[in-house]
Amino acid sequence: MVIELDTKLTKQVEEICAARGVRLTSQRKRVFELICANAKSSSAYELLDDLKKSEPQAKPPTVYRALDFLMEQGFIHRVESTNSFISCCSCNAHKHFSQLLICDQCGNVVELQDDNLIAKLAKNAEQHGFTITNHVIESHGVCKACSSK
């Protein structure tokens, strides 16, 4: 399922990059747009295939460098279980941890931010003297649309 690209999101990313003094090259921007244009998570090779439509010379390192940049800047998330990528719902407007709901039938991914869940996880870790530096919370199942089919 392809969704319409939100040009405001791209503009926000451009402004964040300018404020941080980092370069949002045309290839990085295009990879971000390709990720945002899909409700499903995208693998690096799916992104490469899509990128080649506008840039036939694109090679895997081009996509991997763009993905590294976009993750470093907090604009995308890596879906660990499927080795794929989705856009961040807040575009790194603030530091956050997310829960990803992944439909095993259609492949759509929804990012949720639940401060109560994160607080509970942090409290549980703290009780064991553990400091959490990163969360990867992925829940697999069937989305509402696929359930009703």
UniProtKB/TrEMBL annotation:
Membrane-spanning residues: none
GO CC terms, sorted: cytosol
Entries under Gene3D superfamilies matching the protein: 3.30.1490.190, Winged helix-like DNA-binding domain superfamily/Winged helix DNA-binding domain
Binding locations of Zn(2+): C103, C106, C143, C146
Similarity annotation: Belongs to the Fur family.
GO BP terms: negative regulation of DNA-templated transcription; regulation of secondary metabolite biosynthetic process
A Pfam family it matches: FUR
Cofactor binding: number and manner: Binds 1 zinc ion per subunit. Binds 1 Mn(2+) or Fe(2+) ion per subunit.
Complexes and interactors: Homodimer.
Cofactor: Zn(2+); Mn(2+); Fe(2+)
MF terms in GO: DNA-binding transcription factor activity; transcription cis-regulatory region binding; zinc ion binding
Primary location class: cytoplasm
Name recorded for this polypeptide: Ferric uptake regulation protein
